[in-house]
């Protein structure tokens, strides 16, 4: 029973496979009447736990032979286990046992990252034992969690966030870290150094210690902020915050006049974040605060306007009163857009989707504006008052058509209230006094003013403002004819899935389900494990929808990462002629795209490929919008479920290929050659598990090698490759992260070997390009590879010298990529001149191969040494993967 309890206890800290319970497994195996393999003992333990529904098991047949199953623990069960262990004071003991076993997996940053930093950083004793002792610290470096250069700073940052000053100072003193090191950028936190990190984490003891170590407060952090700007963002009334500010300003009084990159002084930042105590302190420490109180940032805003515009997010009344007492001009007009305080107070709050959400904070600000007689009729550069702007920016123009219980609109109601005297009876007329008559006349005058104002408001808001704001999408003569960016086509050997495709298309074209609720458009989810062909199926669905005239256009968005959504949407808008998109948020961009689709009136299918979950994509969906010409298809690993009341979604699971579909895929890839027998193809299909991506690589490799290379020989090489990997490192099978990684590893390894043996002159470029693909996101940019990677540049120059008909380097690279696509290692598109896509499973396998061959460091060194990444937009995500995904 010990092994069962122990497995459950450690599930929280391990990703997939348990290594620290080997001792218990061996004991049970030895004590059994019939000795069992260690894998069988563990399998029995997992099945025993599953009877309690504490974990979920999934049998994986012959493809994970060491264990034969995957085990998952629900995150609610996981969280509960940890609460139990914390309550019983057992967490530190369990973690200590896990860390001290020193049986770390080969994959860098795997167990060590999860065990030590997800949980052990909460325990000072573990940090002391396994990080602060020099031997253990070097052991951590040895096992790949961090390097001598970057790891120390990562350790310090975790100490700042989770531990006390004593631990931090002991680490600084033991490692003899000087002021220059402590002052330098903290790397993964961009330009912020440790002092900034301590302030932003609220750890004032560490911040004070760093100041006493003579770290210069004039070193600017992210966005050019000084440490006083950082202090100004802390919305807490803590004495130690003011104490730290006093310690800094008393030595460096000129720091209060430093501006950040947006032109804000520190007191302006404190005003914007609603920090009255810090604001008072900073203003008191300026020689002549009144001379600076109405300074503007680069956007033309004063500190008072910054505070007013954030009144929906934080209580700002006290901050505003402080600023007014120092002489802030509440009647100030922004010279950039001619907005006054009313415009700023009523503008939509960032992230606020409902303008009528109950929030009393703005009420006090509006009352203050009334009390100070701020001109509510003031017009901006477009001639609109704040109310015009408020109605348009919150899409409230339909309010003019709303009727009350008597069927009256806001325009008709005041007309009705002007009761003419001749509509009264004689008795009612006789009862009207002179005072009543005067009151009625005054009421009519006021109602006339209201009617005139509403008329102006309606005319301006609907007929002028909207037309002016949407000029980029109100050009039907141009937009109607301009298609969206082209999308990739499915693999030429794509086969089968016919019933699934028909069912999805039917769901996408059905509008009966989602006529009400937040989702008012057909929404469909295609889900299944990685490598099962979801993207290929979605591409085939899009292709069929266009061919059958069900949709006139397709918008394809890679939704795996949020920056991918923003980038693709911006590209689509720029392609349609919409400019000046810099600085727009992803939500604003996607809404511009939806406005554009609605204006085109053509039926459009929007595909969000590889999204993670509804909560991650929700903000990018056209919720509560009537979009009659749009349907949305989501592809994901896990099934998407909608919150109650949102509407309905059609969900379709992508499973393994049927046996006949798998055989047809092989036959098509092999050009229906008669050199391969039906039995051989059946064996190949069986070995692949009918997983599309594995089968495609298998068949592609065999087709590339030619008829002399039989399927039987390929299968022998697969088995030999698996045995070779297992013999070098018996734990490899235990560390597999998905069902078919073992077979996938062998397939990619053989494909690389065939490329090396190939006489094709572009094979060397193909290999070096493929090696680098493992460290980018799934999109690998051509320009970066061609201009920055020395090995590719050298091979291109050599081929150029040897070729009788010289080609441009980009054409050479495209031919090399086409060579890779024959193996199904990358997705090749002939008309794509900027990048190539690699499946994330293939990308992960490339990384594993290079780790096993101990070549990863050299490849990374070449990529990192290439130069500046910043000029390549698509390489930003690559840089993130390079530095945070592999260097550690």
UniProtKB/TrEMBL annotation:
Keywords from the UniProt entry: ANK repeat, Repeat
Pfam family, one: Ank_2
GO MF annotation: an example: ADP binding
Extent of the ANK repeats: 299-335
Record bears the keyword Repeat: yes
Domain of life: Eukaryota
Domain NB-ARC: 500-673
Transmembrane residue ranges: none
PANTHER family per UniProt: ANKYRIN REPEAT AND PROTEIN KINASE DOMAIN-CONTAINING PROTEIN, ANKYRIN REPEAT-CONTAINING PROTEIN-RELATED
Name of this chain's protein: E3 ubiquitin-protein ligase mind-bomb
Organism: Folsomia candida
